[in-house]
C-alpha cells in the first residue's frame, strides 16, 4: 500500500506527510474500504480544468477531481487531483487557513473513494459532516 503526494507545476507546503499518510490509511480502515494505492497530484486551475474537460466533460473550475483506477470496488487504487489555486481562493472565501482547506480537500477525495457522494443536498451534508470529523481528528 502506497500513498504519494506530487506537485505538478505548483508549489505546495504539505507538512507532516507521514502523519497524513497514517491518518489516511486509518480513514480507509475506519470506513471498511481496502487501500492498495492513493496518489494525490497538486496542480493549477488550468491543469485541472483540462482534466475535467477531457475525462468528465465538465468545462468548469473545481478544487478536486477523484478517479478510482482499480477494478475491485472493495480495494481503492485512486488518483486525486487538487487545484492549489482553488484551495487558496476557497481558504480566503471561507475564512480558514490554507492548511485547513488543503486538508479538507485531501479528506474529501479520500471520502469519495470510500463511497461518499456529494451530488444531492443529503449527500453533501453527510460529506461535510465526514470532512469536519476528519479535520477534528487530524488536528487534535
From TrEMBL:
Give the cofactor note text. Answer: Binds 1 zinc ion.
Q: Does the keyword Metal-binding apply?
A: yes
- A biological process from GO: rRNA processing
A Pfam family of the record is: YbeY
Q: GO: which molecular function terms?
A: metalloendopeptidase activity; RNA endonuclease activity; zinc ion binding
Q: What does the entry list as the binding residues for Zn(2+)?
A: 108, 112, 118
Q: What are the protein's UniProt keywords?
A: Cytoplasm, Endonuclease, Hydrolase, Metal-binding, Nuclease, Ribosome biogenesis, rRNA processing, Zinc
- Predominantly, its location class is cytoplasm
Give compartment(s): Cytoplasm
Its Enzyme Commission number(s) read 3.1.-.-
Cofactor entry: Zn(2+)
Q: Hey, what's the signal peptide range on this chain? A: none
Query: Which GO CC annotations does the UniProt entry carry?
Result: cytoplasm
The record, for InterPro entries, names: MetalPrtase_cat_dom_sf_prd (IPR023091), YbeY (IPR002036)
Record function comment: Single strand-specific metallo-endoribonuclease involved in late-stage 70S ribosome quality control and in maturation of the 3' terminus of the 16S rRNA.
What family name appears in the similarity comment? Belongs to the endoribonuclease YbeY family.
NCBIfam families associated with the record:
rRNA maturation RNase YbeY
HAMAP family with a match to the protein in the record: Endoribonucl_YbeY
**UniProt-recorded name of the protein:** Endoribonuclease YbeY
Amino acid at each position: 500500500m502506497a500513498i504519494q503526494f506530487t506537485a505538478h507545476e505548483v508549489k505546495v507546503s504539505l507538512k507532516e506527510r507521514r502523519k497524513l499518510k497514517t491518518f489516511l490509511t486509518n480513514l480507509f480502515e475506519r470506513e471498511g474500504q481496502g487501500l492498495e494505492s492513493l496518489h494525490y497530484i497538486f496542480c493549477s486551475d488550468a491543469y485541472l480544468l483540462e482534466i475535467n474537460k477531457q475525462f468528465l466533460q465538465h468545462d468548469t473550475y473545481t478544487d478536486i477531481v477523484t478517479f478510482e483506477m482499480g477494478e475491485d470496488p472493495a480495494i481503492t487504487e485512486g488518483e486525486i487531483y487538487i487545484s492549489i489555486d482553488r484551495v487558496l481562493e476557497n481558504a480566503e472565501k471561507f475564512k480558514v487557513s490554507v492548511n485547513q482547506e488543503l486538508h479538507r480537500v485531501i479528506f474529501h477525495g479520500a471520502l469519495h473513494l470510500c463511497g461518499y457522494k456529494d451530488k444531492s443536498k443529503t449527500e453533501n451534508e453527510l460529506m461535510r459532516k465526514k470532512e469536519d470529523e476528519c479535520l477534528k481528528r487530524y488536528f487534535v
